[in-house]
Amino acid sequence: MNTDAVRTYYAGIGEREWARLENPEDGAIEFEVTCQVLAKYLLPHARVLDIGGGPGRYTIWLAQRGHHVTLADLCPEQLSIARTKIGQAGAEAMVEEVVVADARELSHWADNSFDAVLSLGPFYHLPDPNDRNRAAAELPAFFALMALRLWR
Hints:
Layout: H1 3-13, H2 16-20, H3 28-41, E1 47-51, H4 57-64, E2 68-73, H5 76-89, E3 95-100, E4 116-118, H6 129-138, H7 141-151
Parallel strand pairs: 1-2, 1-4, 2-3
Helix pairs in contact: 4-5
């Protein structure tokens, strides 16, 4: 993966990534279906890492439902948008951290720091199997098993 290319791409699209998930012709169905699955399977008050969460739409949704969320993304510009949106939504109390991070290397957090990991975007940008395996290895085993069951 060319990390700089991914950062540059997302830095250049600004608020478009935020708006994408409310657009019926783009990501609105994705957002609704994902939220339904999360609502069904996440334990109440779970501690969730939203890795690759960009502008924070899922982070806010999770925080508004009582989950403790950490938002991480490669793109500082997307995280800047997220900080603004989190503040506008009044979700700051449930968002523990907003930080630049790479899905392939999550040593910023101790093992078993999270009950679940939401990793919707990063795998699109990992065409190399070694990078995908490295990112998958960073996910908690329980979540990885659950994800396999849900998406088969």
